[in-house]
Specification:
Length: 571
């Protein structure tokens, strides 16, 4: 079933459906491959098949019977397609008005639906390293996109704050601590030292396990230290989330599910699912070579067991429509097994759980490798990008006060990194190229931000952005380059919906690049021909063009917002 996200798509589908006696929602409305063909196209294959007729004949008959509507001016048949031409003035009005009010995307699509998104979810007592950036930015973009579509989003940080590694850290602290100040670097150093020592001394392993046992048993000293490590880590993580504009709706780590472990194991046993394998408790799953491990030989529970409890908790609390796990591709087996297990436990909502895997970020190219040195921290990469763009921004804006230059450089530096992580297909690895990421010219975040700022600057020159269409004659938008922008704007709702359905932020990235390119094509025409300038001499034409610029500006801003990227007005 197809849902039509603009009144034009809807009208085109209706026009064909009414004639063919089928539901409009059964029809797909597309953009014809070339603008000369029309603005919207509906294929007649299915109808022709049902009627045992030739598709071209069906299309011809439908086009001949077409009566113009408020938004559709005409229809012609081209082979098996009915191609519709929009009424340009009416379409501009709907498009620009919707864009200006931030309502181009169907903001009610998700009403009454909840999406849980588990993303970021780092392990504590370690830095947020550069490789965490992809999952964090993808998850945040999805959260923002679903929110824009009116879904209730529960952004979840499932901190890795439980397990034997935390016992090892406590053991390390007992041996070599206390260290001051306590920060993630110090904690990580302790842990690394412990691992190195343990490699030559099996007794240490035992010490680590003993400390984890104390922690599990609620020993006050172990608990207090663990809590301190967790607090210190969270403060560090939060400072990075702040840079990215991320606030989580739920921060519940693995430790929070520890009390549920006995119940989960009992339930599994009750269902007759639990079997013993070399002293450990496992569940065999259909189609899986390896069973899922839930309890080790020494009685400790595992990541998977806590994920079972967390999934149940999320269902009980949120009754999600979809529960997404934005986690690197390397954990595909874990999630496949987890969801199968939930299904075998009789949870009919197991099918609503989805692993949203993403590829790695590599720094293979020499230029970036040199630029970044051995930087491993996420925050440092932002700082480097910020420094790289600051000079250009200062140069391009000689009148901008230094504070503002710093703020814009921050927004653009971050935007550059975020976009570089979102633009490639989610499951593809990225060879991160920081030069490309910060470039104002390439397919980059800064290029989109720059396009937005250019719209804002045009409006400033004209005395302000257009905020409503009263008294504006959109019939003055008579050029095909302007119409090309309108056609692009018409695709925005569909792109956003598609991006949400497939959990692919790159769809929005790609869309925005196309919109910016279309805008640039139009804008550049004015360089050669004064009559085509946005700020041309004719006042009525200028108002109409300014309205279109404002619509592009609003759409770029909204789209960037969905990606988690700021849109400064000047850069
Ligand atoms: N803490 C895990 C890691 O750093 C990711 C957790 C992902 N979420 C989940 N529900 N398992 O690899």
């Amino acid at each position: 079933m197809a849902t039509h996200h603009t009144p034009l798509h809807h009208a085109a589908a209706e026009a064909v459906a009414a004639h063919a006696g089928i539901a409009a929602t059964d029809l797909k409305v597309e953009a014809p491959p070339r603008a000369e063909l029309g603005d919207l196209a509906v294929g007649c294959f299915a109808i022709a098949k049902a009627r045992k007729q030739n598709p071209a004949e069906v299309a011809g008959a439908i086009a001949a019977a077409f009566q113009p509507t408020r938004l559709l001016a005409s229809a012609t048949a081209a082979g098996p397609f009915v191609n519709f031409r929009a009424d340009r003035t009416a379409t501009y009005r709907w498009l620009i008005d919707s864009a200006l009010r931030g309502r181009l995307v169907p903001g009610e699509l998700g009403t009454g639906k909840t999406i849980c998104i588990d993303y970021g979810s780092p392990n504590i007592s370690k830095h947020l390293a550069y490789h965490h950036v992809r999952g964090t930015t993808v998850g945040h973009a999805l959260a923002q996109t679903f929110r824009a579509l009116g879904y209730r989003v529960v952004g979840i940080n499932f901190l890795g704050d439980w397990g034997t590694t935390h016992g090892m850290l406590l053991a390390a602290w007992a041996r070599w601590g206390p260290v001051e100040p306590v920060d993630v670097s110090a904690l990580n150093a302790l842990y690394v030292r412990f691992r190195a020592a343990a490699a030559g001394d099996p007794a240490l392993e035992q010490e680590g396990r003993a400390w984890f046992k104390r922690l599990e048993d609620g020993d006050p000293e172990a608990r207090a230290l663990w809590q301190r490590f967790r607090d210190v880590s969270w403060a560090e993580f939060q400072s990075v989330y702040e840079i990215l504009g991320i606030t989580y709706d739920e921060v519940r780590g693995e430790a929070a599910y520890e009390p549920d472990m006995p119940r989960i194991l009992e339930t599994l046993a009750g269902h007759g699912l639990l079997t013993e394998s070399q002293g450990a408790q496992v569940v065999e799953l259909p189609g899986e070579k390896t069973p899922i491990l839930l309890r080790t030989r020494d009685g400790t529970t595992l990541y998977a067991t806590r994920d079972v409890a967390a999934a149940e908790y999320r269902w009980a609390n949120y009754h999600f429509t979809r529960s997404l796990y934005v986690v690197d591709r390397g954990q595909a087996l874990h999630f496949r097994q987890l969801f199968k297990l939930l299904g075998r436990m009789g949870h009919e909502w197991a099918g609503r759980c989805e692993h949203v895997p993403y590829g790695l970020v590599k720094i293979d190219n020499q230029k970036s490798a040199t630029r970044l040195g051995n930087v491993v921290l996420m925050r440092d990469v932002f700082t480097i990008a910020e420094t790289m763009v600051r000079e250009v921004i200062a140069e391009n804006n000689p009148e901008m006060p230094p504070d503002q230059v710093a703020e814009v450089a921050r927004q653009v530096g971050i935007g550059a990194i975020v976009f570089a992580n979102l633009a490639p297909q989610r499951d593809k690895d990225i060879d991160f190229d920081i030069e490309h990421a910060v470039s104002l010219e390439g397919d980059s975040g800064p290029y989109l931000q720059y396009s937005h700022a250019r719209c804002a600057s045009i409006a400033r020159k004209a005395g302000g952005r257009v905020t409503d269409l009263d008294g504006i004659d959109l019939g003055k938008l008579a050029h095909d380059a302007e119409w090309a922008i309108a056609r692009r704007l018409l695709e925005f709702p569909e792109s956003v919906v598609r991006s949400s359905e497939s959990c692919e932020p790159h769809v929005i990235c790609h869309y925005l690049l196309q919109l910016a390119a279309e805008f640039s094509r139009w804008y550049t025409l004015g360089n050669g021909d004064a009559a085509l300038r946005v700020l041309c001499d004719d006042a009525a034409t200028r108002r109409a063009r300014l309205a279109l610029v404002s619509a592009v500006q609003a759409t770029l801003r909204d789209g960037l917002g969905m990606l988690g990227i700021a849109a400064p007005d000047q850069m």
